[in-house]
Design a protein that fits this description.
With about 325 residues, the chain is of the alpha/beta class. Helix content is about 40%, strand content about 15%. The chain has helices at about 5-10, 25-35, 50-60, 80-90, 105-110, 125-130, 155-165, 180-185, 195-200, 210-220, 240-250, 255-265, 265-270, 295-315; strands at about 15, 40, 65-70, 95-100, 115-120, 135-140, 145, 170-175, 195, 225, 235-240. Strand 2 (about 40), helix 3 and strand 3 (about 65-70) form a beta-alpha-beta unit.
Length: about 325
């Protein structure tokens, strides 16, 4: 499958694994890259910059394929800067940037042979990101899991709008979990897809508790809610008693300090690491409704490619 994204990143299939805070480690990233996609390691949710170095070095023992490191730059102050220095020292092939203004990070890596991809949720953000020198964009619709845009734009409308607004290649994200989603994204003008939730429900996502994966299989697209909207950081999670508490507090006008303990990374880990799915909270997109199993990464990617080929065959008699 040849697109500008596969050419840019030197990968076999235009399929990118999401940054997945606390979950995207060397094991998962290597499995994705070995299967022909682009695996990613999450940076700033690792305990220290040296832990990032260890993950990068471990990944290189597991694959010789390209990979990326994800930097979530909005929620952690300047913490990302020390992690970025490690990534530069380790000569990583690509970075993805989520949240916040990417300009300071881009300034630091200007002139370095690191591919730069930024997550956007509006046309305005896409145009700005291109002007800053991004090599590609990931555009996420409101169906996605974790942090999403503030404007509730669905993937079906957002992707062609962004594609028409920029000249660099666009990667579609949000609500995509199979070969039909890949082909739909390509039909909308995207040149690749990014999936987060779908990659959690794989065997190689070893940090995710089995209870978390099981919820992704058994629950459906109606079992998610958007929290943190009132504090300007809307994010989609699996509905449970914790998200109900958060939403009730938001309705009462709670500020960040009031919500802090409930929406913290530590409370996220209660669910995703410990499997206490009604005590903490866990991110997930509406694509939950399409997840029926927990395959290996390779099985899943080959299935997606096969499904995409089936769609192509169905289209031929029509056109």
């Amino acid at each position: 499958m040849n697109t500008r994204i596969t050419e840019l990143l030197n990968i076999g299939y235009p399929i990118i694994q999401g940054g997945l805070a606390y979950l995207a480690d060397a094991n998962l990233a290597a499995a994705v890259s070995n299967a022909g996609g682009l695996g990613q390691i999450t940076a700033v949710t690792l305990p220290t910059p040296e832990d990032l170095r260890k993950e990068i070095q471990k990944l290189r023992t597991l694959t010789d394929k390209p990979f990326a490191v994800n930097f979530a730059i909005s929620m952690y102050g300047d913490k990302w800067k020390d992690y970025l220095e490690v990534a530069i020292e380790e000569n990583i092939p690509a970075v993805t940037i989520t949240g916040g203004n990417p300009a300071p990070l881009l300034e630091r890596i200007q002139g370095l042979p690191i591919k730069k991809i930024s997550l956007v949720s509006t046309v305005k953000q896409a145009i700005k990101a291109e002007s800053l020198g991004m090599d590609a964009l990931m555009a996420v619709g409101q169906e996605g899991g974790g942090h999403i845009g503030r404007d509730d734009l669905g993937t079906m409308v957002l992707i062609p709008r962004v594609v028409d607004a920029v000249n660099i290649p666009v990667i579609a994200s949000g609500g995509i979990g199979d070969g039909r989603g890949l082909m739909a994204a390509l039909a909308l003008g995207a040149e690749g897809i990014e999936m987060g939730t779908r990659f959690i429900a794989t065997k190689e996502c070893v940090l995710a508790h089995p209870h978390y994966k099981q919820e992704l299989v058994t629950k459906n697209e109606l079992d998610t809610v958007i929290i943190k909207r009132t504090i300007g950081a809307p994010a989609r999670a699996i509905a449970n008693s914790t998200t109900n508490k958060i939403l009730n507090l938001e309705e009462q006008g709670a500020d960040f300090e009031t919500l802090k303990s409930l929406i913290s990374g530590d409370n996220n880990k209660v669910a995703i690491y410990e499997g206490k799915m009604d005590e903490g909270y866990a991110w997930a997109g509406q694509v939950m409704g399409l997840i029926q199993d927990v395959p290996s990464v390779q099985e899943m990617i080959l299935r997606i490619v096969s499904e995409a080929e089936e769609v192509c065959e169905k289209w031929k008699p029509i056109f």
